[in-house]
Amino acid sequence: MAETLRFGYDGDGGLGDRLRSAVLRGEKTATSSLAVEYLSGEPLPRVGQRLTLLDHAGVPHGIVETTRVTVVPLHLVGDDVARAEGEGFAAAQEWRRAHEAFWADVIDLVRADAGDPAWQLRQAEAVVVHWFRLVTPTVEPPPEIDQQHDLDVISPGPGGTVRALVLDHVEAFNTHDRARLLSGLAKDVVWSTERDTIRGVKALAEIFDDRLWAMQPSLTVEHLLVQGDRAGAQMTEELTVAGEQRRFAIAVFFHVQRGRIQQAKVYREGTADID
User: Phi then psi for 159, rounded to 5 degrees?
Assistant: First the structure.
């Protein structure tokens, strides 16, 4: 059975859509549930678990990965949780007021999950905080202002999801996670250096396998600028060439479409190739 994550509930007035959009913009990195809600048989999230982010219609909008799971009494939920939920809360007191009101509105649903028709919220109620990161979006939320914006533009707002995609690409590269690295690339990706242009994810995978991984490469992002569906990154690259550790300053310019890297252009200290 596919592991999924949904927000809100049917007839929630758009709450679930707003929360999902906040995840895709990189603003929401945690969600909270009452521990009693898991008594219905739903499994607790697990660290490292990847979940498909769905809307109410079951349409996938991206993949998130669980990074941490904590259980905290309601009255001890901290400001870090309030801010990470991406709903504009600056402090835990605001978060508690809003969530206590929400749980009061859906008390019949909570009682059904708990199997206790007399259940009442207590200040010591156990809250499960599910922390996650966006791995890659598959469908971007509509822009908040311009509703006619082209859906190929992955990042309306501050560039949250394009940023997340680029950073996930770098992390996968650094851990030599081939499957994860390739999953973030379009099938017809175009990857260019000063001398070479590689077309297609299969051809690029062969370059990684035949040449690059043997050099034990790693990247450090120094600066990352996102504008619309494009990103420019200044990085430091380290490689082992002929037994010698070498370090380069590189710049990479990404073009993202439909949640995957469609094109990249690499420049390395005057040349994009290793001699």
Answer: 90, 25
